[in-house]
Design brief:
Elements lengths: L3 E6 L3 E7 L3 E6 L2 H14 L3 E5 L6 H9 L4 E4 L1 H10 L11 H11 L9 H27 L5 H30 L2 H11 L6 H10 L8 H8 L4 E3 L7 E3 L5 H17 L1 H12 L4 H22 L9
Parallel strand pairs: 1-4, 4-5
Antiparallel strand pairs: 1-2, 2-3, 6-7
Length: about 300
């Protein structure tokens, strides 16, 4: 009998549900609780253990389970929420509990992946902090447009300077982190070698898209949200759209794609060909983004620098 385990984890506790045994267990999210859980699951040897990404609360437990040789999948909470809606648990106040996660594990069977080590977790934290600071900078900049009082404008300018210094400091830490990791540095150098891609975009891709070079072209496009999806309902019948995926990566690739359309011969020719057959400019830009992404994915997979013949 193959067992599936769902874990609902929080800062202090985590609940574990086992299917098809339909058994529930409760542990404290500390060293002692994790060791007790690890012993139980090591004896059980479930086919798959699934938990949500909770911003770090899951890291210690997931790492211990992975090191013990157990199959662990840490998934986006939205996937669990969408699954809960599909099985009728749709109220906003409904709690996504361990049993729902276990049902997700047994029904969907998301792929188990290697858990990030402490260095990868630190890099992820730095990138997340940079995104927070960038959002704060945008918010303060927008307030500046409506600041009619001189003292308020002065206050906003002071805050903007502090945020800009903090972003510069985070950028320095990210660069140092990547430079001290040979594998990440190699990936960044490979991505940076493509015309249209600069250091900032290369660092963004290797930190926010660590799967680059490990997936096929369809998987990487779907992960970023630039894969065309059929929508055959109502007024959308016959149309194909993109969406979902990692919007931050998609946003970070938009301007580099525009640069590549001008300066990268492969992307420029691809873009012009789409326009010549009647595609709209935005459709052609998104397709060019997908083309650029898949080329970068192949380059990293093959450990090769830019070559115009790479497709």
């Amino acid at each position: 009998m193959e067992n599936y385990v769902g874990i609902d984890i929080s800062k202090r506790y985590f609940d574990l549900h086992i299917l098809p045994e339909d058994k529930q267990h409760h542990f404290e999210n500390d060293h002692k609780g994790i060791r007790h859980c690890l012993k139980m699951l090591t004896d059980l040897r479930p086919k798959l253990i699934v938990m949500e990404s909770t911003g770090g609360y899951e890291f210690a437990l997931a790492t211990e389970l992975y090191v013990a040789g157990l199959a662990v999948a840490v998934v986006n909470p939205r996937q669990i929420r969408d699954f809960a809606k599909a099985i009728g648990q749709i109220a906003k106040t409904d709690k996504i509990d361990a049993k729902v996660i276990a049902r997700f594990a047994s029904t969907i069977e998301p792929p188990a992946r290697e858990v990030m080590d402490s260095k990868a977790m630190r890099l992820k934290s730095l990138v997340a902090r940079r995104d927070q600071l960038t959002q704060m900078h945008v918010a303060e900049s927008n307030r500046m447009e409506h600041a009619v009082d001189r003292s308020i404008a002065h206050s906003i300018k002071a805050i903007l300077k502090v945020i800009e210094r903090q972003i510069a400091d985070i950028d320095k830490q990210i660069v140092e982190h990547i430079n001290h990791d040979e594998q990440l540095r190699r990936k960044a150098d490979i991505v940076d070698s493509a015309p249209g891609i600069g250091d900032t975009t290369a660092f963004m891709l290797v930190t926010k898209l660590p799967e680059i070079g490990t997936l096929n072209r369809r998987q990487i496009a779907a992960l970023v949200g630039v894969a065309p999806i059929n929508r055959d309902s109502g007024a959308f019948r016959g149309k194909r759209m993109t969406g979902g995926g990692r919007s931050s990566v998609r946003s970070g690739l938009f301007m580099p794609t525009l640069v590549a359309i001008k300066h990268n011969p492969v992307i420029r020719e691809f873009y012009q060909r789409l326009l010549s057959v009647g595609k709209t400019k935005m459709t052609a830009v998104i397709a060019a983004m997908r083309k650029l992404l898949t080329i970068l994915n192949v380059m990293v997979a093959k450990n090769e620098f830019w070559n115009p013949k790479v497709t």
